[in-house]
Amino acid sequence: MFEHYLHQHVPDRRRRLRLVVAAHLAGLFTVGALGFTWLMGKLQIAQVAPPNANFVLVQMSLDTPLPPPPLPPAPARTEPEDKEVPEEPKPDDEPPEDFTELLPPPKPRPGPVGNGAPTATGTAPIGVPGVATGIPGVHRLPPGFSTPTLAAPRQPKSEQRAPVPLAVVRAQAVYTPNPDQDRLAATRAGMFDKRPGENETSFCVDATGRTTEIRTVKAFPGDPAVDEVIRSTIKTWRFRPFMVEGKAVKTCTSQVFRITFK
């Protein structure tokens, strides 16, 4: 009886071997899975966001006013052929003729008879006392004539130059750079105020094409340093000389600068 019991409960070596092998395989699989998960976590590349860059831009714009449109040509006036144009009287530049030379000397009037003192008749002679005037023997001019006077020489009119339109001056430009943006940004208006404004500067172009008589007509509000930058810029401008009848002449105009800080 006991032998039968012992024979039925004999441990199975093959079953034990299978269990040991299965346990080892399960352990190896678990360790491999954990190692693979850890390795993938190490090798995973984190997503890199694009860099954020903030820029502060300072932009100055120079607005040049457009030139005015040319005026239409005036219609030609047709005048009738039979219309007579009155001739203008020519100015008489010759001095008036001295009529005293053409008149004969008057005859002396007889004085009163007697021993009385002689009396003078007529008017006082013309001229400065102590200086002899006129022709000897003639004491006065006939009625209706006056002492001839020489006409004063005419003074030449002062030449006045009218300002030339900016478009005409710009057409002769050779070198006209804009104001330096770095210098404008370094002014008080460009660093702190940031307020836009206008500046009007007048200048002349001499016979050699250089700018002269640079003057601020309308100053930039609140910062005279901006006006100085504009004047120094215009001083470097160069133009071709303006020719009138083959001769270089001086011309003047003005430029308006509209400056905006951002």
Can you characterise this structure?
The chain crosses the membrane at residues 21-41. Keywords: Membrane, Transmembrane, Transmembrane helix. This is Protein TonB. The protein is α+β, with helices and mostly antiparallel strands and 262 residues long. The protein has helices at residues 2-8, 13-43, 166-171, 181-185, 188-193, 224-235, and strands spanning 173-175, 197-205, 211-218, 238-239, 242-244, 247-249, 251-259. It has a three-stranded antiparallel β-sheet with strand order 3-2-7, covered by helices on one side. Strands 1-4 form a two-stranded antiparallel ribbon. A two-stranded antiparallel ribbon has the order 5-6. The chain is rod-shaped. It starts with a helix and ends with a strand. Mean pLDDT is 72; it is low at 98-103, 112-134, 149-153 and 155-160.
Structure described in brief:
With 262 residues, the chain is of the alpha+beta class. The protein has helices spanning 2-8, 13-43, 166-171, 181-185, 188-193, 224-235; strands spanning 173-175, 197-205, 211-218, 238-239, 242-244, 247-249, 251-259.
What are the salient characteristics of this protein?
single chain, 262 residues, 3-stranded antiparallel β-sheet, two-stranded antiparallel sheet, 7 strands, rod-shaped
Distance between the termini: 110 Å
Percent in helix: 25-40%
Q: Flag low-confidence runs.
A: 98-103, 112-134, 149-153, 155-160
Round the Cα radius of gyration to an integer and report it: 56 Å
Proportion in β-strands: 5-15%
* Count of beta strands: 7
CATH-defined fold name of the domain at 166-259: TolA/TonB C-terminal domain
CATH class of the domain at 166-259: Alpha Beta
Mean of pLDDT: 72
Largest sheet: 3 strands, antiparallel
3D shape: rod-shaped
**Global structural class:** alpha+beta
Number of helical regions = 6
Following the backbone from N to C, one meets helices and strands in this order, namely HHHEHHEEHEEEE
Query: In what order do the strands lie side by side in the largest sheet?
Result: 3-2-7
Named CATH architecture of the domain at 166-259? 2-Layer Sandwich
CATH superfamily of the domain at 166-259: TonB
